[in-house]
Every structure is written in structure tokens, then in C-alpha cells.
Amino acid sequence: MKRKAGPQDGPQPKNLKMQERNITETFADPTLDVTFKMLFGDDNNKDILISLLNSLLGFVGNDEIIEVDINTNELPISFFSEEKRQSGITSAVDILCTNKGKQKIAIEMQGQKTKYFLAREQEYMAKLIAGQVKEGEGQQYDEKVLKTYIIVIGKANMFLGNTALKDQKLFEVDVQPVVIQTKEVVPGNKMFWKFFELPKFKESENYAHIDKDSSLKEQWLEFLIDCSTKQEKPDRSDIIKKGYEIMEVAKWEPDIKTLYWKQKMNEISLIETQEALKEEEYTRGEMKGKLKGEIKGEISKIKDFFDLEIPREKIIPKLKFLNDDKVKDNIESNLTYIQAHLDDSDSEICNELGLVGSLLSSEYNL
Fold first, then answer.
1. What tens digit of pLDDT does each residue of 144-195 get?
2. Domain ranges of the chain
3. Terminus-to-terminus CA distance in the chain, angstroms?
4. Helix axis angle, 33-40 to 238-246, nearest 10°
5. Which residues of 244-264 are buried (b: 16+ CB within 10 A; e: fewer)?
6. Residue 108: phi, psi to the nearest 5?
């Protein structure tokens, strides 16, 4: 696919040849926006897209996808329907697919985990489903609302932190509405989410033993992970080999190379920024812990002063943290609280008085 860089791609580098020389890969990374669309967003490569979707969703027989209607817009609202060029589904979809069961499938490729991604995918599904029923068709919901699938392929693991699953080795996650009491999928459900986490797949036994006889699902996931690391096409299924041929950088037009390199550098910069933020947060946490430890030490010393019945006017000049300008106005009330809670732990008192948060500043290198 020949794609000319447009205004939305920003200013082009002045020294194009220098930019091209920076691309040392034989095959490009297929998960970037420009390359993903070359593979799966080009009408000339519908066989590749259909192969990917059928393999990832496990569709065979009557469920097999036979038609794809490609929309290469990124996220702006687009209009689709049962027939082309007619107003129908109003949603941010990249691809509409049709199989023998008239199912529509929305594809979204996420290079990195986005904040609130689960809430976002639920909103995305709601808009896609709602747009299938046109005005005046309210009595035909069961007929008009089609089974709708969203596939999310993550280059970074998505189910982390408060969204972590019990089995952290799962690289393929199916999500459907479930009746809690009976653990059954909601009867008549038409909403399906499919999540693939590429880093977890790479750590699995499946990944370690892939060859041309492996399932197409495994071959496609391996392709998305390893394509840019290969020096020559591996011995895989013919449709996978076609993917490698399209990703062969030497065959590209200069403007495509430039756009690819720009996106590659943007991704590297994003990853470096995220790593720097993690390191900064880790350092901040360490320093915050150190500050809290020092404040607890001062609280312990204050308790000793009260046990010795030393008057406050002699205690205050000996304090560093409670006598800081940021909390100095509260020193009397803070001392009164400590005196009334001598049996509480130093940590409990520190938390109750909110001293760490109040004292966080450049003065303490935080």
C-alpha cells in the first residue's frame, strides 16, 4: 500500500536520506499505526485481515468471516451500515466484518496500555451496539443488534494492578457479561471482548515451540511480536509469509519509511518516558519513606519529652519537622494530639496528622 504523508503526520524531516539510514530492520514492526494499516487496513490485503480475525476469534464453518469493510480512520466518528455508504453504526471503529452469521467485529490495536482501558472498552462497545439500531427500529432490537466483538491486542500487559487477574499467565482473555449467581453467560448476549497480551504470550510454552504447523493464531501472535527482529522470513504458513513480504522495509516508498521511522521513534520516546516516570516514582517513594521514618523518630522523641514532663516551650525549639514553616501554625494542636495519644504508634500519629504530605517539598528533595 502506498500511503502519502499528510498534514496530520506533522512536518517531514529535512534530511530524508539520513532518516532512512536509521532504519536497520529488515522487516518492520507490524504493531505501529502505519504498518498495522498496511497489513490489515488495505483492501488489497483483505485475505491477511480475514486470516487474522478468524484465527484470533476461532471462527470456522458458518462463523467464518467472509467479508471485511475497512475504515482506516484512527478514532474520529465514522458511519457504517449493512450496506456500504449508508448511515448506520456511529462509532469509533477501525473495521467492520461480516461473516455468515452477520456478525460485526470492531478491531482496536493498542500499542501501550491506556489509562482506564477497561472502562474505555465498555464505552466503545456501548456506542457500537447502540448505533446498530436506527430510529424507529426500537421494536426490532433482537434482530438489529448483532453479535459484536472487540479485539484488543496489547504490546504491554493490560491486566495489572487493580485489574490484575488471578492467573497472571493468561495471554488470551475472553470477556462476556455473566450472571453472578449461576456463573452463566447472559442469555442472548451479543457483546464479546477478546484481549491478547503479547508479553505474556512470549513467556508461554506456546510461543517457544511455534513452527509452520502451529495454529494460525499462534503464528500471527508470534509475527506481531517478532517480525522486526527477523533477518529473513521464517518457515511459516503462506499467509504469514505474505505478512513478512509486506513488512519488508526495502520495498517501501521513501515517504512510508519516513513515517514509519517517526512513529518508531515516538514509541521509543514514550517507553523511555514511562520508564523514567517509574524510576522517578520509585525514587520518590523511597524518599517519602525516609522522610516518614525521620518524622516518626521526632514523634517518638516528643513522647519521651512528655513522659519526662518537659514543658512545651522547651520542646518546640528542639523540633525540626513539626517546627517547619509548612506546619508550624499547627504545632500546638499537633503536640496536643501527640500528648493525648501516647499509646498510639508513631506511624499512626504521623498518618493522622498528615505530616508527610504537608512536608513534601523541594526542601526535602521530594
1. 777 788 888 888 888 888 888 999 899 999 999 999 999 999 998 989 999 9
2. 27-247, 284-364
3. 51
4. 130
5. bebbebeebeebbbbbbbbbb
6. -135, 130
